[in-house]
Design a protein that fits this description.
Elements (H helix, E strand, L loop, with lengths): L2 E5 L3 H12 L3 E5 L3 H11 L3 E3 L10 E4 L3 H11 L7 E4 L19 H6 L7 E4 L6 H4 L5 E5 L4 H13 L2 E5 L6 H16 L15
Parallel strand pairs: 1-2, 1-4, 2-3, 4-5, 5-6, 7-8
């Protein structure tokens, strides 16, 4: 097993961290609010540690679990300490009124975040199509990923499988745009046609 670092201590960070800890990995929680991060560590118990915000994360895989509006600042705060890491972006860059995505035309939140990463850091889109409370239930779920680097996708896929998730590679990083649109669609479905947030996207093959 390995150490996975999570930047962030909100509900989605807690849901992912819970599955990481249950899978037997060590999860490092790093947050701008040290007290909130430590509270999550205490909640998780065995298998969880706290890190120093802005210092080099302990894990080779770093999950950026902050709202899109704060993602660029977080990447800047960690700077060169992310060198050699695989960064997983989970954010959905959704407008506050849910009218659409706030990213520039032809780009995604992940691609915009990647612009601030040190050279050689591989970024992967994942987790954005799974609601946190659904993820926290611990059931098998499908997880879609997009990235340009083949080895990074293999590493993240292996990690996701260890959490009891079924990874599906949807293509290069340009497909993060589509995954973010899917995230927005799921919010719309929850608020309208489904009438509930207790659902997940599932691929039925064959």
């Amino acid at each position: 097993m390995s150490t996975i670092s999570i930047i962030g201590s909100g509900k989605m960070a807690a849901a992912i961290a819970g599955r990481i800890a249950k899978a037997g990995h060590t999860v490092e929680i790093v947050g701008r609010n040290a007290a909130k991060a430590q509270a999550l560590v205490d909640q998780l118990g065995t298998g969880a540690t706290s890190g120093t915000y802005g210092a080099a994360p302990a894990g080779d895989i770093v999950i950026l679990a902050v709202p899109y509006a704060g993602a660029a600042a977080a990447v800047s705060d960690f700077g060169s300490t992310l060198a050699g890491k695989v960064v997983i972006d989970i954010a959905n860059p959704v407008a506050p009124d849910l009218s659409g995505l706030v990213t520039p035309p032809g780009s995604s939140g992940t691609q915009e975040i990647a612009k601030g990463l040190p050279a050689g850091v591989h970024i992967v889109k994942a987790f954005n199509t799974i609601f946190g409370h659904v993820l926290a239930k611990g059931k098998p779920l499908d997880a879609f990923i997009a990235a340009d680097d083949a080895q990074a996708k293999i590493r993240v896929s292996t990690f996701l499988e260890s959490l009891g998730l079924r990874p599906f590679d949807v293509g290069g990083l340009h497909m993060a745009q589509t995954l973010e649109a899917l995230g927005l669609m799921m919010i719309g479905l929850a608020k309208n046609g489904a009438g509930t947030w207790d659902f997940a996207m599932h691929v039925d093959i064959g």
